Amino acid sequence: MRHVEICFSPELIHLHELTGKIVVVVDIFRATSTMVAAIANGVKEILPFPDLESCQQMQEKGFLIGGERNGITAPGFEMGNSPVAYLKGEFSGRSLAMTTTNGTQAIDKSRGAEQILIGAFPNLEATVSYIQAQDNDLLIHCAGWKGHFNLEDSLYAGALVKALESTHRAEEDGALAMGSLFEKEGHNLKGFLSQASHAKRLQNHGIESDIDFCLTLDLYEIVVKADARGFLVEA
Ligand SMILES: O=C(O)[C@H](CS(=O)(=O)O)OP(=O)(O)O
Predict the structure, then answer these.
(1) What is the required cofactor set for this protein (predicted)?
(2) Given CB 3.0 to 4.6 Å as the disulfide criterion, which of 51, 106, 119, 129 pairs with 143?
């Protein structure tokens, strides 16, 4: 039996061992949902950056650039952080450089893991099957919000804990708590998460369609993982 644990914020990642583990980075609203949408709709690869400046410089190298801070597209960037912007396949074959408020920081802080996967509800089942086919223990790294716990990433972590019950033992309190929370509330993702602070922030920006997409289960059969160069690609 392998093990599964949860890190609830990038600020706490130093408390967890990364070596030898699969780390699933999750930022449901919206970075990792957007990454899965982009790859599923033809984007060739995504290079994540923690900072705006290095990301923006990639435009000179022919990259499409996506940059967001506090829910708003960063000045000078072509794309923000909206998953629905990728759904028509308009950016098929392009390489995307991307930086967001929370999600790309969490990816950066996951370096050192055996594998880094990108978690989202629209490819939950595919990600579960992939993890079950590997021998490694699992760490679910929630991006949270500016260092704080958030409900949507933690509920996704609970969904993974429940789906992996037959292969991965949850021993620490966080994983047990989130498994129970998903068991109780997972049938009503949208209703339950409408009270989440980040969902309210996004509603204020008038982007309910993003929330709907981010909470849709199993639209895609792809798995997104970091390759040896640090690019996010289809596994
Ligand atoms: O664009 C988002 O959804 C957020 C911005 S914020 O947390 O509302 O400031 O970025 P993300 O990195 O996807 O959490």
Answers:
(1) Mg(2+)
(2) 106
